[in-house]
UniProtKB/TrEMBL annotation:
Residues 120-218 bind DNA. It comes from Monoglobus pectinilyticus. CDD domains: trans_reg_C. GO terms for biological process: regulation of DNA-templated transcription. InterPro entries: CheY-like_superfamily, OmpR/PhoB-type_DNA-bd, Sig_transdc_resp-reg_C-effctor, Sig_transdc_resp-reg_receiver, WalR-like, WH-like_DNA-bd_sf. This is Stage 0 sporulation protein A homolog. Residues 120-218 form the OmpR/PhoB-type domain.
Length: 220
């Protein structure tokens, strides 16, 4: 069955490795950077799929899909309890399996990409560069001096490009829920940031979405 599933996935240009041994499969899953793991619940091995899943989940956040002959609720609950992301009961259509695999991989890669952006120590959006280690901001190679709150506000928007945030959300995020003041503080700081950026660049970075809030656009 594993070989058949692999052959079908390969027709959709997925690279697949197969292991018939639970111990070997666990080692492969931990040692390699896979985008998705497909597990059988019952294996001809000293360890079953549930134990393998729990061991993988301790070290990795990759999508794990169970395929099983058993469709009862307790088996599904057990699978999700040890960290499974999906559970497919036999018999199933190959198109359904491929669709589920593709959906999980797409979401996983999207999360990884977003995490990489946020964990990067230097953020670059067009001519804007923010060095998180030194708390310095540059436009076209020229440094722009910003007080702490202006920097934190710009950094938050840059870490979440193209997302619209209300003034209330930005105030709570940068100043804190218990801070003194109101959302007009956000308006003032956005204006100051814009003035500093636009004095050094002809491009617009922070956009006002009327009735909704502000966003930092990563495109011209």
């Amino acid at each position: 069955m594993a070989q058949y599933e692999s052959d079908c996935l390969k027709t959709f240009r997925y690279d697949c490795d197969i292991s018939e041994s639970g111990q070997e499969g666990l080692k492969m899953a931990v040692d390699n950077d896979y985008c998705c793991i497909i597990l059988e619940t019952d294996l001809n091995s000293a360890i079953d799929g549930f134990l393998i899943c729990s061991q993988i989940r301790k070290q990795k956040n990759i999508p794990i899909i169970f395929i099983s002959d058993c469709g009862n609720e307790s088996a599904k609950i057990r699978a999700f309890g040890v960290g499974a992301d999906d559970y497919i009961t036999k018999p199933f259509s190959i198109s359904e399996m491929v669709a589920r695999v593709n959906g999980h991989i797409t979401r996983y890669l999207s999360i990884i990409e977003e995490f990489d952006k946020k964990s990067a120590r230097v953020i670059e959006i067009r001519d804007l560069k923010i060095d998180k280690d030194s708390h310095r901001v540059f436009i076209g190679g020229n440094e722009i001096i910003m007080p702490v709150k202006e920097y934190e506000l710009l950094l938050f928007l840059a870490e979440n490009p193209n997302i619209v945030f209300s003034k209330e959300h930005l105030f709570d995020r940068v100043w804190g829920i218990d801070a003194m003041g109101d959302t007009s503080t956000v308006t003032v700081h956005i204006q100051r940031i814009r003035e500093k950026i636009e004095s050094a660049s002809s491009e617009t970075y922070i956009e006002t979405v009327w009735g909704a809030g502000y966003r930092l656009s990563d495109s011209k």
